[in-house]
Amino acid sequence: MVHLVPAGRQPSGADYKFGDSDIAAQRLSTVAEVFAESSRSFLSRCVPGPVGLAVDLGCGPGHSTRLIAEEVRAERVVGLDRSVTFLARAEAGDGLPVAFRRHDVTTTPFPVAGPDLLYARLLLSHLRDTASVVGRWLGALAPNGRLLLDEVDSVESEHPVARDYQRVVEAMLRENGQRLDVGRVLGAMPDPPGTVSREDHVAEVRPTSRQVGRMFALNLRVWRGDPFLVEEFGTEWLDRLQQRLDMAASGKMELPVVWTMRQMVLVV
Ligand SMILES: C[S@@+](CC[C@H](N)C(=O)[O-])C[C@H]1O[C@@H](n2cnc3c(N)ncnc32)[C@H](O)[C@@H]1O
Fold first, then answer.
1. Does a structural domain hold residue 241?
2. Among candidates 92, 248, 106, which has minimal Cα distance to 164?
3. 227 CA to centre of ligand 1 in angstroms
């Protein structure tokens, strides 16, 4: 079956399929745990000096925003997200100098003036029209500002359960005109206008089987009733996949999966 994005459909975050329920927030806690180390080393390596305003695009419940506040010497860190529910969780923070605003990050201007640093982690897979969104973000930066992108380049596994799960995610994203391995798109993208320098690096992340099982099982729990997925894969098949992912989450099954993250810096 071929699923096309209608011509003229604008890039927008209205199609974020991973939800903002309690289950989605639990998944993002595990995501935060899994990707913390590689994101910390990316931020500290690529932003060694002090900055004025740093903005976390698609901040969710604030894990990545707090990471910026901890790793970068920023005067102010502001997280932007569309989800009121996630922003309410983010606000219940722990005393770090961070603030949060509701905003659709596919649109500029942002509700803060001239950021020196923009950071996006695990966001572009959920948006359409990568190059034009990135171009818009660069245009919102202060002079000499930098955009850091920390996005999925690949998710690899030989395990049949992981492969089945990947088919579901990929179908879901494709249906929305999005793709999981958006890092590949970034890697192949010519320098956007105004780019002064560009750094490109790929980092490997190897979560434990329990962490993989937990992230995948929680996602599938959010999606399993989705009419598109039910039509595409069938309820029984989805239920069986859910059971096997739950087994991995509870430590009863090995589920080795390796992520590579595209970590790109664009300076204007
Ligand atoms: C996978 S989560 C990543 C959260 C966070 N960056 C992290 O690494 O923990 C993606 C986030 O992007 C947000 N999002 C998706 N589309 C958006 C848009 N157009 N504008 C603002 N936020 C958006 C979702 O609400 C969600 O919180």
1. no
2. 248
3. 23
Question: What is the CB neighbour count within 10 angstroms for residue 128?
Answer: 20
Q: Which domain holds residue 114?
A: 14-155+179-207+256-267
Residue 120 lies in a domain: yes
Between strands 74-81 and 98-102, the pairing is parallel
Query: Residue 123 is which amino acid?
Result: L
Is the distance from CB of 17 to CB of 128 less than 8 angstroms? no
In a domain, 164, yes or no: no
Residue ranges lining ligand 1, Cβ < 6 Å: 13, 16, 18, 20, 28, 31-32, 58-60, 63-64, 81-83, 86, 104-106, 121-123, 126
Count of domains observed in the chain = 1
Q: What is the pLDDT of residues 171-208, one digit of tens each?
A: 999 998 999 999 999 999 999 998 999 999 999 999 99
- Does the residue 57 lie in any domain? yes
Confidence category of residue 1, pLDDT binned at 50, 70, 90:
very low
